[in-house]
């Protein structure tokens, strides 16, 4: 919530919980009615893309969430080196509200605008017009609307909700009050409505434009620098046409600079670019390796435990692992695939979480093996090799304490860690066993 919430703060389906997806029921019912009465031939391309495009957007966003959390746990290219509070996790759990909202508006637009029906798959002139309309009116109007949102009146009633997240995640990009999203959709509709009016709109260009918006939003808020320097060296004007995660991160830490949407040239034109932008970009790319004080070495439990990790799904992780939801069965193929990949290519433990408690730096490392694999006699040697490699890596990095968790300390495996104590008597850290 904003500090002083104004009108149109809450989403219309705020109190519906997970039943909010029912607001898309008219799209399904209408489509089923048309198919039953006139057959599949009555469903044109624009209508057929509404629901699949929403599903793809959710998958796209989830990939960015998992990638960002994995990278900020292990990567040296973090921008803001702070943890995320539980309040932020709760505040940002409704990131799919804007996708549902967009889906409803696309459906209404399909019904209300005749030009939408019978759209061609692709129009090159429409793609060029969309790019120009975005770089011109959309970026310009967004820049000034964003500056207006930082005026005390609007900031306290609306935009402070977004800026409550200093340490951003990809989904932070869409965490705004409902009223703001109405304006944002109106701005992003300019290229789509304009090309429809000019007669050069196409279904694929609309989808690509929405993917572009999602991609840039997610990238700008991912909190690790990933844009390579060579891109700006090969094409120097690109720095005015594409922002970087570090560029937008300064907006969340400094508040009064770097207002642009995706193209920073308006910040250059109106002198609102943060002077530290280039320096932060260089430093974030260079990065600094972190030496943890304490490492807890654990492993996967059941096949679906990956979904309960920080890099998994927040909605699943918020529930006990033995509380299987009905939709979990749809994730079994992915769980089996991840197990096979980890078994074949999992050559070392990986970092899944990092925590700072005052000056104490802690990390959780995971051996890429599951509970049942620890019971396989023929696989024990490879598991011990993974644990040994993690121990040696911790020693090289200057870790002070490493604890073996769960089955990593099993007596039949390594004698409660005694195997490693005898093999490496001069380890530079204390090797502890987890006590149940």
Automatic annotation (TrEMBL):
Any single biological process term in GO: lipid biosynthetic process
Domain called Fatty acid hydroxylase: residue spans: 136-272
GO molecular function, one term: iron ion binding
Catalysis: reaction(s): a long-chain fatty aldehyde + 2 NADPH + O2 + H(+) = a long-chain alkane + formate + 2 NADP(+) + H2O
Subcellular location(s) of the protein: Endoplasmic reticulum membrane
Top-level taxon in the UniProt lineage: Eukaryota
Keywords: Endoplasmic reticulum, Lyase, Membrane, NADP, Transmembrane, Transmembrane helix
Any matching Pfam family: FA_hydroxylase
EC number: 4.1.99.5
Enzyme class, broadest EC rank: lyase
Cellular component terms per the entry's GO annotation: endoplasmic reticulum membrane
Record's bilayer topology term: Multi-pass membrane protein
Listed transmembrane segments: 182-211, 331-352
UniProt subunit comment: Homodimer.
Family from the record: Belongs to the sterol desaturase family.
Protein name: aldehyde oxygenase (deformylating)
């Amino acid at each position: 919530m904003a500090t002083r919430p104004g009108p149109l703060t809450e989403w219309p389906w705020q109190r519906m919980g997970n039943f909010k997806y029912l607001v898309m029921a008219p799209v399904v019912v209408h489509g089923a009615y048309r198919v039953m009465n006139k057959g599949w031939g009555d469903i044109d391309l624009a209508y057929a893309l509404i629901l699949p495009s929403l599903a793809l957007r959710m998958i796209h966003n989830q990939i960015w969430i998992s990638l960002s959390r994995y990278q900020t746990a292990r990567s040296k290219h973090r921008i803001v080196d702070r943890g995320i509070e539980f309040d932020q996790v709760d505040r940002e759990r409704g990131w799919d509200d804007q996708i549902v909202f967009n889906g409803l508006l696309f459906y209404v637009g399909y019904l209300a605008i005749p030009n939408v029906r019978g759209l061609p798959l692709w129009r090159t002139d429409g793609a060029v017009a969309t790019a120009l309309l975005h770089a011109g009116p959309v970026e310009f109007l967004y820049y000034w609307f964003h500056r207006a949102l930082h005026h005390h009146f609007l900031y306290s009633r609306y935009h402070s909700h977004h800026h409550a997240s200093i340490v951003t995640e990809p989904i932070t990009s869409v965490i705004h009050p409902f009223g703001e999203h109405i304006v944002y959709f109106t701005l992003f509709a300019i290229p789509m409505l304009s090309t429809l009016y000019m007669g050069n709109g196409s279904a694929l260009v609309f989808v690509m434009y929405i993917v572009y918006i999602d991609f840039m939003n997610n990238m700008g808020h991912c909190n690790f620098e990933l844009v390579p320097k060579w891109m700006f060296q090969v094409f120097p004007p690109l720095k005015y046409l594409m922002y970087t995660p570090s560029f937008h991160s300064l907006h969340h830490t400094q508040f009064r600079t770097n207002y642009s949407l995706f193209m920073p040239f308006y910040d250059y034109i109106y002198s609102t670019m943060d002077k530290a932008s280039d320096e932060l970009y260089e430093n974030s790319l260079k990065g600094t390796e972190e030496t943890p004080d304490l490492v807890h070495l654990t492993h996967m439990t059941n096949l679906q435990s990956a979904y309960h990790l920080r890099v998994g799904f927040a909605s699943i992780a918020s529930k006990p692992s033995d509380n299987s939801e009905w939709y979990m069965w749809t994730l079994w193929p992915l769980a089996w695939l991840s197990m096979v990949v980890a078994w074949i290519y999992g050559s070392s433990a990986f970092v899944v979480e990092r925590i700072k408690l005052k000056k104490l730096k802690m990390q959780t490392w995971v051996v890429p093996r599951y509970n049942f694999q620890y019971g396989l006699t023929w696989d024990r040697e490879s598991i011990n090799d993974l644990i040994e490699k993690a121990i040696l890596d911790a020693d090289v990095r200057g870790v002070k304490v490493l604890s073996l968790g769960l089955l990593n300390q099993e007596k039949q495996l390594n004698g409660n860690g005694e195997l490693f104590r005898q093999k490496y008597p001069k380890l530079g850290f204390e090797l502890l066993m987890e006590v149940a």
